[in-house]
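Write out the 3D structure for:
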Amino acid sequence: MAGEHKITRQQQQRSADGLRGRGTQWIACSFVLTASGLSRAHGDRVLFRDLTIKLLPGHRTALVGGNGVGKTTLLEILVGIQPADAGDVHRAKGLRLGYLPQDLTERIGGRVIEAAMEGATHINDVATKLAGLEARLATTTGVEQEKVLDDYGHAQSRFEQLGGYALEAEAHRVLAGLGFTPEMTSRQVEELSGGWRMRLALARLLLSEPDLLILDEPTNHLDVDSVAWLEGHLAAWTGALLFVSHDRDFIDGIANRVVEIIDGTVTEYVGGFAEFVVAREDLVQRAEAAAAQQSRKVAHMEKFVERFRYKATKARQVQSRIKAIEKLEAIPVPTQKQLKAKFAFPEPQRSSRVVVEFDQVIAGYDDQPVLTGVDFVVERGRKVALVGPNGAGKTTLVKLLLGDLAPMAGNVNIGNNVDHATFNQHQAEVLNLDRTVFDEFRMTIGDPLDRNLRTVLGSFGFGGDAADRRVGDLSGGEQTRLALAITMANPVNLLVLDEPTNHLDLPSCDLLEDALKAYPGSVVLVTHDRHLIRNVADALVEVRNGEAVWHEGVNEDVLKPVAQRSASAEDPQPKNDGTRKRTADRPRDADRSRKRDEAESRNQRNKATKGLRSRLNKVERQWEAAEAELVGIQDQMADPATYADADKVKELTRLHDETKDRAANLMAEWERLSARLENT
């Protein structure tokens, strides 16, 4: 601001004294924005309901939630771009609000540096006022000039306080932080690409220093250095900040509040992202406990429905329970729903209830047994971890399951319609290093489904430009992650993983954990990662001392070395000859007796139920075959051409009735045998 009228230092000081104490215009009330009772729906789908949020100075709030839950809609309601279906938004009087949408709609012209400085409207307004007062000083005298001079002093002090004289330097600093070179700041805005225009819009917004800053995915168009700079800049933000981001580190470096939208409701967590993870885990555990209780109730009703579906005398009770199940409002367990949406695994074909059965198997190499008496069943949907020391026989067990090794004695029975995919420790070594990540993924899986493969890759951490990187340029951990994505992408109903966490970093391990939780089929997992086992497995098979023992659930004791599992006798003092008796490594007599009794009990039960289990599996296969036959008949009856032949229609009707009755009888037999097995 260079005016021709000169102001003396004394006049400036007198005017500044008059302004002292006014300072920056602060919002008088404790909040800058509050919303209460907000509801919004798109058609029949409710995004959120009865939502309340309050934004205060110094609160840096991250808004998180899955795609499509309404985060952007909520931001636009708070800004005033679109209305809510219900509820109110109250903004503090005089609130200066800045908003950065995901897609740029504002048209900006001129040179980059000038366009950036134009964003500081609070400074530019004072500059415009100063220019007008300077013009008036040249045309006034006496008392009127004294008043104009006093107003000018106030405005000039305000301009200096807001950083007006340093605005251009600050604009260069912000632009540089967002990746603009000095040469780029002199270019015309029209010459910039869409991504660089978004950066300029962000720079304008930061220079405006609003009381409330709202950002929707601000890192979308930034590189690593720019994200780091923006993170540091926003971490020092003294006003209110509300932002949406998919970048976990970015959130962790900025937020001191986390607000999560899930299942139409909002939960606020005080603290940073790490505190949010801990608090949310506690909330999820409580939700899971409530959901488990509800699930037991539903299972009881469904069992009745399945048992009596084809019995006319029970029709009224069956319909009553079906309606009760339909009306029952499910208790949400957010993690699982979000994970399924994130990975979007295709639904595999339905396998038989028994995926694989080991029946008194002895297995080994060169007539030397490695495992003996292997006898357990993996059922549909189970996620089983094989645990035990190296060399105990876990790999042998996997080879038996996959058919790569024939048992020396006993039987390994694979269920109907079981198809599998495998991952081993050397899977990444077969990748084609000259292809891009996307090409290797696409050509290897030979995807017959109508899927966006870039989206699938993104869920495994290869989003954006990462999918176009050369496989040979990936780190070992990234290649392992790509191999996992290839293994899990096709719709198989049995996944066999051998040490999948080798070479992975912690975030990739978390990603694998999430993927396995969301995986719709059965999983057999060989790993030494106890955290992964705890969070994924629902049963353990302990392979040790030539045996493979089934443990229902995840027994923490089984994950420990044998010597640490129970109290052991202290080692005696060393003998004079320096030798020492290692009693701590041996089970006590009581322990041996207990384990022997447990083993005998298991063996007796297995022998007692072997025939029953065999009969149950046979009936299940017959039942599934009858249902498949019934579907085929129904398909023929749905074909209009069938009705041109009256005899064929008559025969199909007879077959339909017979097959339907046979399926119902087999189902009843299956229920009876299941109940017997359950009570044995």
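The two ends are 93 Å apart (CA to CA).
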